[in-house]
Amino acid sequence: MRSPNVIPAVTLVAVAATAFIASPAEAVTFNASFAPIRISAQPGQVLTTSYRLGLDEADPRTHFKVDVQDWWRSEDGRQSFYAPAGSISRSCGHWVSANPMEATVAGGEALNIRLTVSVPQDVQPGGYWCALSVDEMPDPLAVMPDGVGVKFLASVSTGVYVYIDPVERGADVLAIDVDGSRATARIENTGNTPTAVEGRFEFVRPGETRPVAVVALPRNMLLTEPVRTAALSVPLPDVATLPSGRYTVRLILDIGLDHYIGLQRSVDLVRDTPAIQD
Questions:
Q1: Which end of the chain is more exposed for a tag (fewer CB within 10 A), N or C?
Q2: Centroid of chain to Cα 54
Q3: Contacts 24+ apart (CB under 8 A), 270-276
Q4: Among the three residues 142, 164, 186, which one is the final residue of a domain in this structure?
Q5: Beta bridge partners of 265
Q6: 124/216 same-domain check
Q7: Whole domain around residue 52: which residue ranges?
Q8: What is the C-alpha to C-alpha distance for residues 246 and 268, in angstroms, rounded to an integer?
Q9: CATH number where 29 lies
Q10: Nearby residues of 37 by Cβ (< 8 Å), 6 or more positions away
């Protein structure tokens, strides 16, 4: 496997700066769907779908480059790794072709990308994935205005998922960890497909049934390789809402089945109390 590129994994839209002269007013703004592209297919099928990225009327003519890559995340979700299509065994990147691969779009118009997915005849069941990336490219013929500035180039990546039946979703909760500021769930994908995970932590005092506090666990994607575990962490509420004390912590997860999964444990929570200023 070639060494992957590493970027922060906080958002789907990354903005890169290049060191040439430009006006901040020239920054391109565009409209695109960040929802993943999901396709159910059978071995040997050839399917098509599309992706649209539109520019605002006031935007200048902009040149875009399209790429299909593999991607995955670190266990803590703080970094995303990008590598050439086919770098991981569950990649569908080498099945996906995009047309056009480069295009120039005028303000008020749209870049329409046609995706053709050619599923191999001998593919195994389960979920496969890759990323469709659209990058704004610098215009070498652009007239550079006077003054020193920075030109921001936009980049958007969208997940592409291809599902081959039978698809099996499964996950195990390996641990719940709570410190004075955060709650963390360590989860393992036990199925054969990327699985969306969302849920909540509930903090219940001994002898009670109603939680003192509920902390939402935002939706995350749990992959099957090369890292099939995830450490999903969220900040705790303020000390007034969730003070120090003994609690039963319940983790309740929705992974798209007809039932929830979860785990609970007792913890002695010690909160950090801000020092009182004189």
A1: C
A2: 22
A3: 270/180, 270/244, 271/180, 271/181, 271/236, 271/239, 271/242, 271/243, 271/244, 272/180, 272/181, 272/239, 273/239
A4: 164
A5: 249
A6: no
A7: 5-164
A8: 4
A9: 2.60.40.10
A10: 49, 51, 115, 132, 158, 159, 160, 161
Could you tell me if 218 and 238 lie in one domain? yes
- With a cut of 60, say whether residue 277 has pLDDT above it: no
3-state helix, strand, coil split of the chain in percent (to 5) is: 0, 55, 45
The pair of three-digit structure tokens given for residue 201, joined into one six-digit string: 């932590």
Q: Which of 149, 164, 179 is the last residue of a domain?
A: 164
Overall domain count for the chain: 2
- Tens of pLDDT along 132-149? 999 999 866 665 555 545
**Highest mean pLDDT of the ranges 52-56, 57-61, 216-220:** 216-220
Token pair listed for 222:
């749990």
What digits encode the pLDDT tens for the residues 196-232?
Answer: 999 999 999 999 999 999 999 999 999 999 999 999 9
Dig out the tokens for 44 from the structure: 């040997």
